[in-house]
Each structure stands twice: as C-alpha cells, then as structure tokens.
C-alpha cells in the first residue's frame, strides 16, 4: 500500500458518512451545500460575566482568561467570548463581556474556572465577576474570596450576592456561584473557497454571525481553524492526530482520494460550542448563511468521525 | 495579637527592605520615588515570531498563544506580546508579532512552546512561525512538522530553514528551532494615584512605554496588576498567597501598619519580564518616567520579598 | 470691571437658568444631579447603513465618512456611528454600520450626504450603501449612480431597489433614497470629577451607554467634549465662541463667579444628537446613570443658553 | 460609435502612457510588474503631532481630524495618520499620533489645519498639539489660543514654546507654529488579484508597509481605493469624473479595450502622499513588495494621466 493512500479504516474516518443521507444536493446562493452532517459532543459550559469601568478593560481580562483555550485536546478548556453586555443591562451598570468555558468533565471545568478567574480576571484592573447565566439550575462554587485574607466581606450588587475583596487597585467584586449548563461542543462546518482570502473572508463573516448569538463561542483563534486534523497518522504511529490530508488543497494532485473540490484553494473550519443543541444549530445556520454572501465560495461541508467524537449530529440539509 | 495586625515575619515580608538604602528621597515631576528596589528572578525566555497575511491575524494568534499566561504561579508560562514587526523587516515580508514565553525551567518552557504553537498558532489562519531571537545561542527544537503526516517538506524562507506542512487552509510554515535566552522575570514597580482612574491611566501609559521596547513583556491583563499579593495568609493557613493588605487603600483606616500614602486611592503594579537584566531595567526606567506624566500620581514604589522571589535587585534610585 | 469678571450678559449666558426650576436637589448614587436642563435644537437627520464583506471594512468607511463632523459651527455636518448591524439583520447578509449625519438645513444636509458617500464610502473596498431608516416618510435622492458612466444598472437586494455600479474593486451597490427624519441635536450633560481621569472614565462609559441606543450619535471625538465654549468673548471681540471659563477648573481660584464645585478637577461634556426628542432623552438618562457608576464623580450638570441654541429642553430632574 | 466604446481622447487618457517606457517586463515573485509609471502632483504638507494621556485618545482625535479627507477633489484636504510616537520620543512623554494634511494651496491648507485642530483636536479629551515636523523651515501660524479668552498663557514643554489654554477638561497645550514642507501627492499603484479578497488582502498589507514609513499617508478609507476614476464621462457630460471602466472587472466582456487581465477579478489602488518625492518612492517600493507576498496577485500597474494630474513620475521599473 502506498504511503499516500490511506487504509480503509482511515478512509472511513475521514470521508463523510453518507449512509443515511438523502443524497439531495442543496445549492444556496450558488454555493453547494454538501449533504452531510457535523458531529459534536457533550460538554459542561460555565458562563462568567466580567464587568469593568471601561469596555476595553473587560475585554482585555476576557481575552486573557479565554486564551490558550482552543481545544480540550491540548488546552485546559475550550473558551471564548460569547457576549457583550451594555451598561444598561449589566448588574453593576458597567460594560460587560461574557465568556464561556467548556469541558466534558465538571470537576476539571471547575478547576479551570477558578484558575482562570484567579490568574486573569482578579488581577485585571477594575474588573468584577458575575454569574453569566443566572437561569442555570446548577452552579459551581468558587472560593476566590479567601484571597481577601479575612478582610473581605459579603454585600449585594442589585440582587446579586457578592464578595468584596480588598485589593491594591480598590475592591474586587465577585459573585461566587458560577452557573453551568449541559451544552454541546464541536458543532462545525467547512468553508471551501476559490482563493485563500475568499475562504478566509467567508470564515470571518461566519464567525461574526455565530458570535452575534449570545450563548455560543468559537474557541479557535479568531474563530477560524486552519489546520483541521484526522485521528491518528498514516506515517507517524506516535501521533494521535495529524493533518486532514484529504482536505489539504496543496495535496490534491499528490494523493488519491482527495476530497478537495476542483478549483478550491483553501478550506477553513468553523467550530462552535454553545449552551444547547439548539443554539449551536442556530449558530451553524447563521454562520453558513453569512459565509455564502462572500464571492468565491464553492462549497460548504462539515466534519464527522463515525461517532468517535460524540453523539450529536447536525445535518446541513436540516440546518439550512 | 489582633488579627488585623500582621506578625513581625509578615511585616518584614511586606515592608520594603530598607537596610542598604540611602534613604535619599527622589522627587520626579512632583512624584515621590520611594528609595526601595524591585526584586526579580531568573527565567528562560523563548521568542516566537508569528507572521500572517494581515497584522490582525498575527495578533489574534499571538493573543490566543499568550493567553492564560499571567504568572507561573498559576499558569504554564508567563507570556506576552513583545514586538510588532513591519512587513519590511519580517522574514516572509508579511506583518509579524513577536511573543515571549517565560519559565524558570527549560523543559517546562519547551512543553509550553510546543503546546501553545500547536493549539493556538498552527490552528490560526495564514500564520507562519519563526525564531524570534536569531542571535540566541541556544534553541529548543520543536517537532510540529510531524503533524504533516509525511506530506510535509523542508524548504527555505530567505535564509531561514523551515518546514512546510500541508493544512486545510494551505501550508503552515515553521522554523522549528526556537531561540531561548536567560532572562529576568518579575521586574516591577507600583504606581500610586489619588484616584483609581489616575493610577490606571498612569499604569497604562507605563505599559505602553515598557512594550515599546522590543524584548520585554507585561504578562498580566493589559500589563497591569490590580491585586498584588503577599506570601501566605494571616487568617487562612491553606492559602499560599493573599491580598497585599498593607497596600490596600480601602483598608487604610482599618489596619495598623498600612503602607498606603495619605490621599492615595489605588495602586497598580507593573510587572516586566525581559530577555536580560538591562532591558528590564530600561523598561522600568521608561515606564516610571511615562507614568509620572499623568496628573494625580503621588508615589512610585516597588515590590521586594527578602530575596524569596529571586536574586535580582532593581533600585529605583539607580533606575531613575 | 476686571477683565476676569464677566459682565451680566455673559453671566446670564453661562449660568444655568434657574427661574422655573424646582430647586430640589437630587442625589443619585452619591452624585449631585443639578436641577437644571440641557438646551437642544432641531436638526434633520439622515441615516446611512454601510455594509461590507467584513465589519472592520464597514467601520473604516464609516469613520472616514463621519470624520471632521463634530459640530455644525465648523464642520459640514454633525456625524457619528449610531449602530452596528449583525449579518443576520443586514439587507445583504453582511456586517453593517449605521451612521447619522445631522444638519438643520435640509439642502445642506443633502450635499453632505452625497459628498461623504462619494468621497468616503464609494471609494472604500467592498462597501454597499442602504437607507438606514426605512420607516422615514421622507427621503433625499442621491445620484451616485452617474459615476457608473452608463455601465450601471438597477437591481434588487432583498426588497431594496439598488444601483449596481461597476468599479475597479467589483461592483458598488447603493440604495439611493436615503431616509431623513426631523430629529434633535445638542442634547447634553456635564460630568464633573475629582480627577481628570475619573471624569474621563465616567464620560467614556456614558458614551458607551448612549451609543448602545440605535438612533443616537455623539459627534465629538470619542463622544466626549473637553473644551465646552460660551458664546462670544470677554477679551477678543472677533471671536464668536471662547472657552467656558466659568467651568474651567484651573481658573477656579483666578476668577469670580466660577461654577466649578469644590474638589472638582475636570468637566467633560457629552453631546447627543438623535432621531427624536424621546431617544435623546433616553440617551441622556442612560448616559447619566452609567457615568454615576464610576468612583470620583461629584456632580452632573447640563448646558443651556437662554434659548439662543434652540427650543428643546431636557430637565435633568425629569430625565433621572 | 457605441456608447460602450470610449472615444480616442478618453482612451489616451486612461491607457497608460508607453512612449518612453523600455517595454521590459519585470516578474517579481511571480507577479507581473507592468512597465508604466505613476503620475503625482505637488502639495504642501502640514504635520501635526497629537499627544494624549492614552494612545487610544490620541488616535481617536487623529481619526476625527483626518476624516472626510480622502481627496482634494471633494474634501478640504487629503489627510491621514502618518506615524505613531512612543512616550519615550514624544515632547510631553505621552503617546502620540502624527497626522499629515495635504493641499496644493498653502492658504487653503492653513484654513484646514486651523479648522480641523479647532473642531477635532481641541475638543478631544487630554490632547495636546505639537509641530510634527520640527525640521521644516516654513511654518504656518495658527491662533487657537484666542479660544482661551485671555486666560491662556505661554509656557514651555521641553524646548517647545506652547500655549496653555484653560478648558473644561483641564488645559489644552498647543505649539502654534505648525511645520509645512513641499511634498508630493498622488503616488499610486494598482494591485490586480484573481479574487476580490486576494486583491484586498494584498492592498491591506501594502498599506501597512507604506504606513510603516514615518512621513507618508494613504488618505483613502483604510488606505485602499476601490473606485478609481477617469477624467470626465462618456455618457454624462455634467460629470467631471466617472468610473475607470477600462479597469472594471465586471465590464471585461462588455466593452472593447478593457485593460483587465485574464483571470483578474478585482483591482485596488493604493494612493500615497508624502513629505518628499523620495519618501513616496520608497513607500511605493515597500508597498508593492509587500503586496506581492499575498497569493493570488496577478499584476501590479499604476495610474497616469498624460501629465494632467501633475509633474512627478514614478516608473515601476525604477522603483522595484
């Protein structure tokens, strides 16, 4: 077997499952929507609302707290900015940014929530922390107030029970019961363009549409994945994941079985985590529709892995 | 002993060491420069230059890669953006952002370099990675190219030896020998203001001055620390670090021994890591000078810990 | 009469009118709300929705189009960004930015709309222009399509009738009937702080609250006015407007009749234009409430000019 | 003659002059550099350095002051941000932004300098104004200090003679002698791409390279022109300028004489103004080199108009 040719097992893994598809092609605004589905997995989602005396300061703390948080494969959590809260709607009347942290394991998620608040938000100037999802029936208790060394005290901001912790910059206000919900992670779609910049522009507008929803994040840098992977490796047996070579444009002429459409020069993947199946589905709908408004998009597809990734399926034909 | 009163050991810890100080007060632009010093420690510093087809894309990848990287106490590394490289000066003619990752342990640093590149830069659209400090005599080899699953190949960008790895978005270019140097971490100074916003404005201009140097970072969110800490705790024996209560403005009237000057409402700390003692010293000089240009700054001080933090001392009187 | 002492006429002009005030002081979150009113004038308001293939591109065009548009005293129009439209809500599914242009004279406003679109939006990459206020019963027709030199053609984007004009970058899409409504300009309030940076931070959060409404703008740079003026001059008879010396903190000890409260170091003015009296009133309400959340604010006031500026009054006691 | 066919006079106008060209094609990084030249004109250039207590505030004032300043055909001046000054290099130790205003007529330029400072910088919080080009042998005096109504006074910032004008926000500092030099306006090049997004990405990186130089601006929105024009009109005799139809990609199949290369989908023009012929030449060099680093660029050209625009020529073959 030629090293450029994947074995059958690999092929089943990369090629999109088609057995229960209708096989009906959809064309939306001139873009082929492949009849396939995205596969996603269960994840606990914690929502943290960060406010500050200026939007920029809340955003800086948020970016620090969600950094190094693209994929649970290599990071402590999947994390991203989910929402911008205007002063009028914020518990303390100041601008806010809501972030989500996502992990399948609840205990692991709690550790990440505590650590990222302690390192990246408590340390940031003028910030306060609130439960970002008050409707959540479950919360994780965090004990940041011990940092106050006994000088901290309990008080209220509106109807929120908070701790006020004396710090060098003033007082750090924190609502310590952070809401968590069972959400869905790994919702995804592929955008295939006739130039790298067309595909990227479509990906960026798709991310904006997805993030316009209040309870979704795109945890990868700028929301766009450039290096989609397959499970395992053809050549390096010690690698758990390697480049998804069937979807690599520069390999189209070099391998058999390439899934790169004619004329396509780049594929970007959008990955969506959210607080529910429905919000991820809506996000995929809105993102795909937005992407198709950019000139030069050839095809939309999605990634699935024979159920190895998770139980949730999002059929593109149902989403559109 | 009242619980609000620290024991002597604590007091020695927080109060700035004065035995070998000259005791000569310096007034700079109306601001009192305390005759004390900052204490800092040794750290290995890796420098990664990220380029992309647009500055914004390089910056997005950089922010993801340096996120959750404020302090080695709770993060895998201290990390930050050190420099912006114009297309004219970049190895591939595209805009670049240089980040530094810092950790005292070389092996641990290597792991962080590999993981943060793999999760946050390889995944980001159009990025390439180069050694950010070509003069470094020591490098850490990273083997990201295995991700290419055998389809990767070696090539050159100018005089740099790089790998080209096929990815869905095109090709990921990486110079795998990342330079490291012995640097200094934890250089710091305190900015004390007559209002929270004055202190913050001075801190922000100080950070800009520090970051104008090419080989320094301020790893905290926005470069500013709001919640400086002391070692241990008066009340909670299980806490390794708690709020530096002697410097908390809201506690001035409640504790004995407060080090908060009259009329001061907020203290922000600037922490600087850099590739050498000299560049950190220059950064402290430039940052303090910049801060003193903001109206409402009362005093500049610095943090030291009886040598428990590290061997390096930066006397403010020498710096100014 | 000492030149530092204004004559009575001037005094009547600067001092806030008090005859029909209730004299009842309001304290909101510890901030004194002066019992006075803002005076505002009638203005025609044109609303232009700019879309682009990326939010950043729409915003760049918008910033160019609203630039040099702070006050009708010295600029062709008062102009600013009013709203950000998400792809899901935009006529062409792309990100949008809505700007308002304001002038009392309808013909003059039309000229400004045409010129600013032609110079700043038509020239910007990937932009399209739509009527930003479809409910408006009156529109101003603009004939940008002549730029197409006969190669332009009429088409539809959704239910909007547009022109498609061939340009070097592709096609420029424009809906040429731009809606205008009778609005209100010059709504305002003063924020007085105990430090320059406190007043500024409160002003910035107030601007964010005002701009969170969809049909208001703050035409000054960053939405904040640092140099409020009075009509005429004490010393230079050729000057139509000079510094509002009664409100200058640095003159408090030098002049008689200073209106600067004790302990106050800076006053920033927020000026609001909007599509109706009610939206400007709401904006003032939201802005003042937001400002009072910042530590160090002493007093809120407003500017009025004996009816010389215009017929509309916004009493702070009614607004709060 | 068919209305889609330009008359000879027009053709001579649009087609690039070739008589004194060598006819030698240059290929740079796979991109065809057309053997033509850019035509530019003389302009007076005023340089204003704006500082503020925070970079963002200086930039906000700068953006307001340079807005509605793309082309002298329809705007009061051509204007743009030329340089960012770090605190260490700024006259008052605060972050600075240098803007250029350009106009062929010195008196008209002076009016623009005065008006834009008065409306957009004096009004902006914490700003100060300095001569941005101290080496200039000629200055235009501006009398903003009359705004102080006699309360203003003269003082020094370092070695700069300035006025301090009391304003509501504190004091406005201004050096009233603004340097002007004879510069060059209208330097330009065309970037032709195989997709709109490729051409745009190349244009954006070119703008970044151009603006990395200290004394150049790109006055159009984001530095990129999407709607290049020709003088006059084929069809609408009342139009002074209309779309440059020979370079419109969507018209390639519809007109005779199209200058759009095969496979090209979008052309963006970069226009450069600067303080001298040499700096504009350097900017064109750096911009073209940067643009050629983006995948999908087919050709670089430039605009010239039989000397009707101005006396300066920049031959691409000399620049490269």
Which SSEs are present, and which pair or pack?
The structure is a homotetramer of 320-residue chains.
Chain A: H1 8-14, E1 26-28, E2 31-33, E3 37-51, H2 55-66, E4 78-85, E5 96-103, H3 106-121, E6 128-131, E7 138-141, E8 153-157, E9 160-167, E10 170-174, E11 177-193, H4 196-212, E12 216-217, E13 224-225, E14 229-231, E15 241-243, E16 266-274, H5 277-291, E17 297-301, E18 312-315, H6 316-319
Parallel strand pairs in A: 2-17, 6-10
Antiparallel strand pairs in A: 1-2, 3-5, 3-6, 3-11, 3-18, 4-5, 7-11, 8-9, 9-10, 11-16, 11-17, 12-16, 13-16, 14-15
Helix pairs in contact in A: 2-3, 4-5
Oligomer: homotetramer
Biggest interface found: A-B, 83 and 83 residues
For the residues shown, what is the average pLDDT of chain A? 92
**Range of helix content of chain A:** 10-25%
Distance between the ends of chain A: 40 Å
Q: Globular, elongated, flat, extended or rod-shaped: what is the shape of chain A?
A: elongated
Low-confidence stretches of chain A: 1-21
Q: Helix count of chain A, per DSSP?
A: 6
Q: Assess the beta-strand content of chain A as a share of residues.
A: 25-35%
Structural class of chain A: alpha+beta
SSE topology string of chain A: HEEEHEEHEEEEEEHEEEEEHEEH
Radius of gyration over C-alpha positions of chain A, nearest whole angstrom: 21 Å
- Main β-sheet of chain A, in a few words? 16 strands, mixed
The beta-strand count of chain A equals 18
